[in-house]
Amino acid sequence: MSSAIGLNTRQGEIMNRLTRQGFVSISELALSFSVSDMTIRRDARELSRRGLARVVHGGISLPNGSAHTADFGERASRESEGKERIARTCLGMISQRETIIVDAGTTCFEIVRQLPPDFRGTIITHSAPVIQQGLRLESARTISLGGELLHDSQAFIGEMTVSALEKLRAQKVFVGAAAVRPNGLYVDRDLELSTKRALINSADQVVVVATVGKMNHSAVVHLMDFSLVDILVTDAPPPAAISAALADAGVTILVANHDA
User: Fold this and answer.
1) What parts of the chain have a pLDDT lower than 70?
2) Is the residue at 72 inside a domain?
3) Is position 232 within any domain?
4) N or C end of the chain, less CB within 10 A?
5) At what angle do helices 70-77 and 80-91 cross, to 10 degrees?
6) Do the beta carbons of residue 236 and residue 135 sit within 8 Å?
7) Which of 67, 88, 113 marks a domain boundary?
8) In this predicted model, what pLDDT tens digit does every residue of 225-247 receive, in sequence order?
């Protein structure tokens, strides 16, 4: 866009990160570029002046009307390199005309963000950011699941969502979790349970995506044990107890390397 003309190299890279993540923190940018917080704040003001970004508490986000809330963008920025590698590994599982279900969450979102523009398959999702990504995939079919919108997760949930899934079937579902522990997968709250389980039940193959930071993390609500999982894609080898439990359940573990 014309408003991006004249940006310096650092400002251009900040915009690249914003496009991928929706939010970047001032402190992380300062550390990454080896400059002061004040320098990054000047960059942020310049990007804001041009209408390319919005200065928010603690960082910079995409302007209003973009695909992300600041909260979603902040979560996307955590372990972003690992999420990108996981997504690239998942792309290798998706054929050009496949039907996939995509869960809400930033790792699942990254999979769709990396789909090639000529992808001709079908995406079924309850994630508002994933739905917006469908707008750029002109050859793909995107099926939006209705329901009640949770603003923090930017996902539709509830009986309407579950009912819509009863009429649909996909080859694969890509599902995220708040925590991966030796006895299975966990989410943060009951609100997500019925929808996530319906997503899982609507696919022939269940692919769980989780960065190593989710391993042995603390979360409240048990989603499912590993018997329902076919593949786990992560960015580093899981801890021994989790690896053993996955092996006992016959789950294939794919570790995305830096060349993925």
Assistant:
1) 1-5, 63-79, 258-260
2) no
3) yes
4) N
5) 80
6) no
7) 67
8) 999 999 999 999 999 999 999 99
CA distance 200 to 184: 14
Bridge partners (DSSP) of residue 255 are 234
Q: Where are the beta strands (DSSP E) in 95-178?
A: 99-102, 122-125, 141-144, 148-150, 155-157, 170-175
80 with 44: CB under 8 angstroms? no
**Do residues 206 and 231 make contact, with C-beta atoms less than 8 angstroms apart?**
yes
Whole-number CA gyration radius for the chain: 19
pLDDT at 96: 94
**Helix residue ranges per DSSP H, the chain:** 9-21, 26-33, 37-49, 70-77, 80-91, 106-113, 128-134, 159-165, 193-201, 240-248
Taking the C-alpha atoms of residue 188 and residue 206, their distance in angstroms, rounded to an integer, is 20
Q: Are 88 and 190 in a shared domain?
A: yes
User: Has residue 126 been placed in a domain?
Assistant: yes
Domain count across the chain: 2
Distances (CA, A) of 36 to 9, 29, 32: 16, 9, 10
